[in-house]
């Protein structure tokens, strides 16, 4: 880890200390993604099959997975695995159900009634990455709130393995989470299918889920198209910041930092400490714990651009957090709840020694799909409202329009919009 003493840094050096690793602008990648999007838009399922054979497997692939296969996968799953999936799903369901907003009705003045009513989006596309491990947790985090929100069609796409099949654990989890459709397709071609629709895969109103650079680029591009789908949030490498004082356990801190570092070679982890002794002990613990990790090489690469920031002023710690706006913030300090009101920018906060970041990733009930790359300054993680939209409704009585109409007429005159004025004037004259 690179070490910084905050009080010794000038303004420019502080900005560099908190700078995320620069992502290389890969124009070639963007061009390839645009080609894939255009191809799927034109050739549909045929293009998807071609890309699946090219990128994922030479084995025959059944694009649509029948519900019977999902149920069979669940029934074949070990009872202990069923139990942990169910417990995690239950906690996520409980937390997100509590977020469901109530409709609002307000009479802003006599005879002028305004309402806000809640509607679920109709069709949600849920991207579940493939790779070295089945991301059951991501499926739970997306499918569960979508169901609670009332999304009618919940469409899962996930790449097949080399054998042409989706991992049975993903299929089992999809069954328990009551998804309506599962398709064996990944990468940019999956995002294209969700955005445009094919003969087999339905077009979706909004696309959710993490993925590699191709998936992230595809989501960004389709969301910019006229009439294109919405997306959950901008995507970037995983990140965690731990803030700690002399009460913290260095082993606990190191374990949380490594939990993020093992995700990706470009993941970023930062430790901010007001105790030099603890910061040194954390670096020692990182070296010890790293040796026992199956993804040691990935974590080692991530740690090569990790940061250790030491400050003797506790007020600086909150300032550093709000400047950086981390995806995950782990607070290993005395009386951590006292800090929460001052923290404006963070995706998800983990308080105290008994709250490892892992619990939020899997089973506490909060959502692990969170804003990265500093976007926590303006974006929230996935909530129940991510799957909802709000419709405003207004109704005026005759007396209400008689009272408010002249205000609208005058404002329309100020803007030079005659037809707006006339829509009110005709009604007011009809009352005479």
Automatic annotation (TrEMBL):
Coiled-coil ranges from the UniProt annotation: none
Gene Ontology annotations of biological process type: L-histidine biosynthetic process
Active site: 327 (proton acceptor), 328 (proton acceptor)
Spans traversing the lipid bilayer: none
Comment on bound cofactor: Binds 1 zinc ion per subunit.
Binding residue positions for Zn(2+): 260, 263, 361, 420
EC number assigned by the record: 1.1.1.23
InterPro entries linked to this entry: Ald_DH/histidinol_DH (IPR016161), Histidinol_DH_CS (IPR001692), Histidinol_DH_monofunct (IPR022695), Hstdl_DH (IPR012131)
Required co-factors: Zn(2+)
Residues the record lists as binding NAD(+): 127, 189, 212
Gene Ontology CC terms, in alphabetical order: cytosol
Pathway(s) served: Amino-acid biosynthesis; L-histidine biosynthesis; L-histidine from 5-phospho-alpha-D-ribose 1-diphosphate: step 9/9
GO molecular function: histidinol dehydrogenase activity; NAD binding; zinc ion binding
Entry keyword set: Amino-acid biosynthesis, Histidine biosynthesis, Metal-binding, NAD, Oxidoreductase, Zinc
Catalytic reaction annotation: L-histidinol + 2 NAD(+) + H2O = L-histidine + 2 NADH + 3 H(+)
Matching Pfam families: Histidinol_dh
Function per UniProt: Catalyzes the sequential NAD-dependent oxidations of L-histidinol to L-histidinaldehyde and then to L-histidine.
Protein family: Belongs to the histidinol dehydrogenase family.
Protein's UniProt name: Histidinol dehydrogenase
Taxonomic source organism: Algimonas arctica
């Amino acid at each position: 880890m690179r070490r910084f003493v905050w009080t010794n840094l000038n303004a420019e050096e502080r900005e560099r200390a908190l700078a995320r690793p620069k992502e290389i602008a890969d124009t070639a990648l963007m061009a390839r993604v645009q080609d894939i999007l255009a191809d799927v838009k034109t050739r549909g399922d045929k293009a998807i099959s071609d890309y699946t054979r090219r990128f994922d497997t030479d084995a025959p692939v059944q694009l649509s997975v029948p519900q019977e296969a999902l149920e069979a996968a669940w029934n074949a799953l070990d009872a202990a695995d069923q139990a942990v999936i169910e417990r995690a799903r239950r906690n996520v369901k409980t937390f997100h159900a509590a977020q469901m907003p109530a409709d609002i009705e307000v009479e802003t003045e006599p005879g002028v009634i305004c309402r806000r009513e809640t509607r679920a989006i109709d069709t949600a596309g849920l991207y579940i990455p493939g790779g070295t491990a089945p991301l059951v947790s991501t499926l739970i985090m997306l499918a569960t709130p979508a169901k609670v929100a009332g999304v009618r069609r919940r469409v899962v796409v996930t790449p097949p393995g080399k054998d042409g099949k989706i991992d049975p654990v993903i299929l089992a989890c999809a069954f328990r989470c009551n998804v309506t459709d599962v398709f064996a397709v990944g990468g940019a071609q999956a995002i294209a299918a969700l955005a445009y629709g094919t003969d087999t895969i339905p077009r979706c109103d909004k696309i959710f889920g993490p993925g590699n650079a191709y998936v992230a680029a595809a989501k960004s591009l389709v969301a910019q198209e006229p009439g294109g789908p919405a997306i959950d949030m901008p995507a970037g490498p995983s990140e965690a910041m731990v803030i700690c004082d002399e009460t913290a356990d260095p082993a606990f801190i190191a374990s949380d930092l490594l939990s993020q570092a093992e995700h990706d070679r470009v993941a970023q982890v930062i430790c901010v400490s007001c105790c030099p002794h603890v910061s040194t002990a954390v670096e020692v613990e990182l070296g010890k714990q790293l040796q026992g990790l199956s993804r040691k090489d990935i974590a080692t690469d991530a740690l090569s651009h990790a940061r250790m920031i030491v400050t003797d002023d506790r007020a600086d710690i909150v300032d550093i957090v709000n400047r950086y706006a981390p995806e995950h913030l782990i607070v290993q300090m005395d009386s951590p709840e006292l800090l929460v009101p001052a923290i404006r920018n963070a995706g998800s906060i983990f308080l105290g020694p008994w709250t490892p970041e892992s619990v939020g990733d899997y089973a506490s009930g909060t959502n692990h799909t969170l804003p990265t790359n500093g976007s926590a300054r303006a974006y929230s993680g996935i909530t129940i409202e991510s799957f909802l939209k709000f419709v405003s409704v207004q109704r005026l009585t005759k007396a209400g329009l008689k009272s408010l109409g002249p205000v609208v007429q005058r404002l329309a005159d100020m803007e030079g919009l005659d037809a707006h004025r006339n829509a009110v004037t005709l009604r007011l004259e009809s009352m005479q």
